[in-house]
Amino acid sequence: MGNRGPNGYDPVQISNSTSYNAFGRVEYASIFCSNDSYSVQSNQTWRASSRGVCLLTKITATVVTPSGNIEAEPYTSSGTSYSQFAIIQVGANRFQVTRVVSAKRRK
User: What is the pLDDT along the chain (107 residues), one digit of tens a residue?
Assistant: First the structure.
């Protein structure tokens, strides 16, 4: 799938489904993995350049709204190989980073 290395995970993708631009960080479990900073425009998708075998522990997002920058509720994990995430609006000036569950199951 994708440009995954022979023994790596798919690079992280973050879709911004909000009406606003956003920025944040992708944090990985190992000190040998460098965290990614990202910015993504409204209705666009950011994709990490590479990932290797790094497990993901946290994705933060700050959404730039007319009423100021709003911290989204981050996605956190003890360490996941999932790669697809989205920034969604869950209420008035409330946002969340969530995992995208793909419709097709992987065997």
Answer: 444 445 689 999 999 999 999 999 999 998 889 999 999 999 999 999 988 899 999 999 999 999 999 999 999 999 999 999 999 999 999 999 999 987 665 54
Distance between CA atoms of residues 22 and 64, nearest Å: 6
SS3 83: coil
CA distance 67 to 73: 17
pTM above 0.85, yes or no: yes
Residue 6 lies in a domain: no
Output the CA–CA distances (angstroms, integers) from residue 77 to 22, 27, 36, 43, 52, in the order listed. Answer: 21, 10, 16, 25, 18
CB of 93 within 8 A of CB of 86? no
Question: What is the count of structural domains for the chain?
Answer: 1
CA distance 56 to 70: 23
Can you give the residue range of the structural domain that contains 81? 13-99
Q: What are 68's strand-pairing partners?
A: 65
